[in-house]
TrEMBL record:
Keyword field contains Hydrolase: yes
Stated name of the protein: RNA 2',3'-cyclic phosphodiesterase
Stated family: Belongs to the 2H phosphoesterase superfamily. ThpR family.
Span(s) of short sequence motif HXTX 2: 122-125
Motif (HXTX 1): 40-43
Catalytic activity reported: a 3'-end 2',3'-cyclophospho-ribonucleotide-RNA + H2O = a 3'-end 2'-phospho-ribonucleotide-RNA + H(+)
Length: 170
């Protein structure tokens, strides 16, 4: 299987552990939990890339001048069609969609088109998950976002993702 590239926000150890600790209580019967090391919030999915396009995508990220920001992960829900259990910020700060838009604009110079669907920030907690209602977490998880990463997905057991490169947000 070829690498599937994506840009994402990668939680630090404290945020990752806090999210991972909540998964067992939320996990529907038969669902497959995300490996804790694979928890992330995707900004732009790129898919398989030729080496020249991958290099262009890295140069595109070099041009990003986004400010660091804070996220509050405070809700959990389910994408029925994809059978995905997720957590997310109920009210993402303006900096998040601005970062996604800037990244998409820069990636367009590489011939990489933005996903036409509206951006829905989330962290995948489990796959093959039966329906679960959207609800708020009584205690939010606070995440100080200080970098974006370029990562690739590989087949096989978790962890399935590897970070290739990191960019510091200013």
């Amino acid at each position: 299987m070829s690498e599937r590239w994506f840009f994402a926000l990668w939680p630090d150890e404290a945020v990752r552990d806090a999210v991972a600790a909540r998964i067992p209580a939320l996990l529907p019967v038969g669902a497959r939990a995300t490996h804790p090391s694979d928890l992330h919030l995707t900004l732009a999915f790129l898919g398989p890339l030729a080496s020249d396009v991958l290099g262009c995508a890295e140069r595109a990220a070099d041009r990003i001048r986004a400010a660091a920001f804070d996220l509050e992960i405070d809700r959990v829900g389910h994408f029925a069609r994809a059978r995905v259990l997720w957590c997310a910020p109920a009210s993402p700060p303006d900096a998040l969609p601005a970062l996604v838009a800037d990244l998409q604009e820069q990636l367009s110079t590489c011939g990489l088109a933005a996903d036409p669907r509206p951006y829905r920030p989330h962290i995948t907690l489990a796959r093959k998950a039966a329906a679960a209602p959207v609800s708020e977490w009584p205690t939010p998880i606070r995440w100080s976002v200080r970098e974006l990463v370029l990562a690739a997905g590989y087949g096989g057991p978790g962890p399935r993702y590897r970070v290739r490169r990191r960019w510091t947000l200013i």
